[in-house]
Amino acid sequence: MNPKPVSSTPRNPDPAGSDPALAELERLRASIDNIDAALIHMLAERFRCTQEVGKLKARAHLPPADPSRETRQIERLRQLANDAHLDPDFAEKFLAFVIREVIRHHEAIAANARQASKG
Ligand SMILES: C=C(O[C@@H]1C=C(C(=O)O)C=C[C@H]1O)C(=O)O
To answer: Gene3D superfamilies, per this entry (predicted)?
Structure first.
């Protein structure tokens, strides 16, 4: 009887091995994965709120964008970023990116509402 073939790539039951750098990398990446999950859940919650705002605005015939509100938000977020030692320019760019998407949704909601009221 033939002996059991021996794999050329033996399994490693401990991927980080005994290398402390790899173990630390794994530990940090586990935290990063948790933080990314929290960010996704918080963004989803924010978009749930902004969708409601979009519907409310369409019903009340208010414009999708509110630049004066955005100015106040940017000022506040830059301050929060500064206090948290996060680059305020990055915080502002991130907020602008999110708000641009929200406004796009609001425009679509308003366009749908106009279309529905025609029919
Ligand atoms: C959500 C709103 O609509 C838009 C989107 C904003 C946001 O995503 O925070 C802020 C201002 C508006 O341009 C709002 O008016 O509050």
So the answer is: Chorismate mutase
Residue 103 within a domain: yes
pLDDT, one tens digit per residue, over 36-77 is: 999 999 999 999 999 999 999 999 999 999 999 999 999 999
CATH number for the domain harbouring residue 69: 1.20.59.10
Q: Cα of 70 to ligand 1 centre, how many Å?
A: 7
* Residue 47 lies inside a defined structural domain of this protein: yes
Pocket of ligand 1 (CB under 6 A): 50, 53, 65-66, 69-70, 73, 99, 102-103, 106
* Domain tally, the chain: 1
- CA distances in angstroms from 14 to 18, 22, 40, 76, listed in the order given: 8, 11, 30, 46
- Indicate whether 11 belongs to any domain: no
ipTM of the complex: 0.99
pTM: 0.85
What's the gap in Å between 58 CA and the centre of ligand 1? Answer: 13
Of all protein residues, the one whose alpha carbon is nearest to atom 4 of ligand 1 is 65
